[in-house]
Amino acid sequence: MYGGSGSNNQRLNGYLFLRSDLDATLQGQNKKATEAIDTCEEQLLLNRSEEDSIREFFNEYGVKPITMLFEQQEIHNDGKEQIDVSNDYSRLGPMMFPGREHKVEAQYVIVAIPFTGDKALFDCKPAMFSTNHLQGEIEGEEVHFKFSGTPITEEELKKQLETRTNTLKQNVTTVISPFRRMTELEMVRLR
Known about the structure:
Helix 1 (22-39) runs antiparallel to helix 3 and helix 3 packs across helix 6 (184-190). The strands form 2 sheets. Strands 2, 3, 4, 6 and 7 form a 5-stranded antiparallel β-sheet that branches. The protein has a two-stranded antiparallel ribbon with strand order 1-5. With 191 residues, the protein is of the alpha+beta class. It has helices spanning 22-39, 42-46, 50-61, 92-96, 154-176, 184-190, and strands spanning 15-16, 67-68, 74-84, 103-116, 134-135, 137-139, 142-149. The chain has one domain (1-191).
């Protein structure tokens, strides 16, 4: 992973778009590309076309923006699990035994939404501040949203999924809008 605060694949407590600054990430990639070009053996560069060299550096150090493939989303998994309802005072257990952990069986559903682009951008903070942090996980080339409830109805699932996908769209848009993809022409200017 480039930029950011480490190579740890774990997002902050299952949240997306919270770890690093986009400008710092892009500047870091720009610096790595410049250093690679400066340290590249002159003979190696002379033995191939300028176009091939530019393409190779771009493929190695260019940052590809995220494109969400919402039309390909699917339910990836569903099942049952134990969830903690200790802070849910609408339930009898927490009211009768305050301070104690109280778990109940719940249904869960995982919705997977594929994407293309650099997954490290899911760590970058959007340009706009929001207190509505997006919970999700990156698994391969998919964003996974987990929904759970006792029980979770289809109507609830649709409502929660719509809320999260709208937040995802907004975050991807605000991460991408100030984002200028490092073009091959910019790679030439680095030299």
